[in-house]
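ok trying this again, last paste got cut off
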Amino acid sequence: MSKEGIVERILSDAEDRAQATIAAAQKRAEEIIAEANESAEREEKGVKAEVAGKCAAIKSGKEAEARLDSAKILLTQKRRVIDSIYERALNQLKELKKAEAVAFADKILQRYAEDGDTIAFASDFKYAQEISRLDICAEKKLKIALNAEGVDGGFVLRGKIADKDVSYGALLLADREQYEVEIAAAVFLDK
């Protein structure tokens, strides 16, 4: 074989190897691209699932927050209604007719007054004179004080050892503490 034939053959073999190397590199590049595309698709599906999960969690959290806010608003409204019920009751007690007010005061004094107590009437109480004439006042030697400060309707009993707040406001507060749940259930029948 001549030199030229050997050179030609070497060049031809080199050309074949270069073509084979290029073809292998192209095939490998296509495989890498395909793998990258599959990985990107998997990653995209994972990210979409994660985003969907986070969106669902946010939506659920917002729904729970909205339910809680709604419950707070409803509770506030219920409290306002109950407040107005007790406010009306206080006003009705303050507006009792003379006979009813005196009879109610007599019951309170019979139950809570002790010998020598002072009956301190609210400044807006209308029937202090009538109550001072009750038999219980003489029996227990009760004293009378008019226009007492801070008395929310009716009167308080000031004693030697302790005072007893039997004002209309205090009586209604005690009633509220005891019966508020029942009143709320009766007024707001939850279905």
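PB: full thing came through this time. The CA atoms of residues 67 and 112 lie 47 Å apart.
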